[in-house]
Each structure stands twice: as C-alpha cells, then as structure tokens.
Amino acid sequence: MNPHIDASVAEIERAAFQLRRLWAKPQLLQRLREQCGHGGRPIQLSSLLVIHAIAGQGGAGHGDVTVGAVADFLDIDPSTASRLVGHATDAGFVSRTSSPVDARRAHLRLTEAGDRVRALTDEFRRRFIAQLVADWSEEDRRMFAHLLGRFAEAAANFPTNAGGLEAVGLGAEPELESARRPDE
Questions:
Q1: Which GO terms describe its molecular function (predicted)?
Q2: Where does the chain show beta strands of DSSP type E?
Q3: What does the alpha-carbon distance between residue 44 and residue 90 come to, in Å, rounded to a whole number?
C-alpha cells in the first residue's frame, strides 16, 4: 500500500467496492425483477438505471428530461444512454416525445409502469437498507447518512478530466503499463 495513504482511506475504498457489489448480487436483482416485472418479462438493470435517472431529474410527471441529461446523470456516453433509453422505452417504462422547440431532442417521461417500478424499487432499497441498519442508533444512522452523502457528493463532483485523473495518479502511464498482463 502507498505509505502516503492512511489506513482509513483503504477501508473506505474496500467498503465502497463492496457497496457497489451489493446492488449487483444476482439474488437481489432477481427479487427486484420479480417484484417489478410486468407481462411476465423481467426488468433489465439498465432499465432500472434509466428509470432512476429520469425520476431523479423530475421526469416522473413533473418535467421533461433529455437523453443527454440521462447520460450526464448516469455518467455514461450519450450513445450508450440513447441505447439504454431505447430499451426502457421498448419495455414500456419511458415515453419519448420530440421537443416542440428542437426536433433533434427527445423529451423523456416515465410512463405509469415506469413510475410504478420506480416506487417499488425505491421502497425495496429503503426496506433493505433499513434492515441493514436496524440495530444502529438513530444518531449512528444520521451520522452515516450525512457522511455517506458527503462522500457521494465529493465523488460525483470530482473532475475526471486529465488534471483530475493525474491528481490521483492515473496520468502516469508507466505505472499503468507495468500493471498490465504480459499477454495484453
């Protein structure tokens, strides 16, 4: 481990990695799909992400969201966002209409089915987290919520341009080259 990074940073890194894996566990995704499925078709994780992105920007009936806004919200390439929005639209979770001002832009809204999935998944995640922290004191939950929110905000606002990546040591190609397998 780098001697300039303290042990608590390493603990945070491991915990963040575990949290990411938490939502990718097949059993959890299967339960979400079973609870939110419609017409016998399973829900794809990508559709859940699009639903979350649209709802997070007021698109659950309160305003319009564009494909570009979904790309920004999910921190993905616009062409990838367009494909994911297409899948969510085909599944019946998103409606897509042309902008009256600029026909090149699409305005997205959750359909009734999309809003139902959003509500079910929000409730599922909250119940799951409530179970995980059920034996924590109210003060511990409040402090954790504050610190995790602060951490998430810092991560979301960290610049991923060349300067930001160099600041964390990802601009140094020789180190990356030495980490690659010989057969690459």
A1: DNA-binding transcription factor activity
A2: 94-98, 106-110
A3: 12
Residue 90, CB half-sphere, CA atoms under 13 Å: how many? 11
pLDDT at residue number 176: 47
pLDDT score recorded for residue 137: 97
Among the ranges given (21-30, 46-55, 64-73, 131-140), the one the predictor scored with the smallest mean pLDDT: 21-30
Q: CB neighbours of 138 closer than 8 A, spacing ≥ 6? A: none
Q: Which fold has domain 7-132?
A: Arc Repressor Mutant, subunit A (1.10.10)
Rounded-to-integer distance, Cα 69 and Cα 66, Å:
5
Which residues sit opposite 94 in a β-bridge?
Answer: 110
Q: What is the DSSP string of 141-179?
A: HHHHHHHHHHHHHHHHHS--SHHHHHHTT-S-HHHHHHH
Tokens of 96: 């897509």
**Residue 109's beta-bridge partner residues?**
95
Using left for φ > 0, alpha for ψ between -120 and 50, and beta otherwise, residue 43 falls in beta
**Residue 90 confidence (pLDDT):** 93
Six-digit token pair at 127?
């119940």
Domain with CATH 1.10.10.10 in the chain: 7-132
d(CA 119, CA 113): 10
Q: 36: closest CA among 127, 126, 120?
A: 120
pTM, whole model, 2 decimals?
0.73
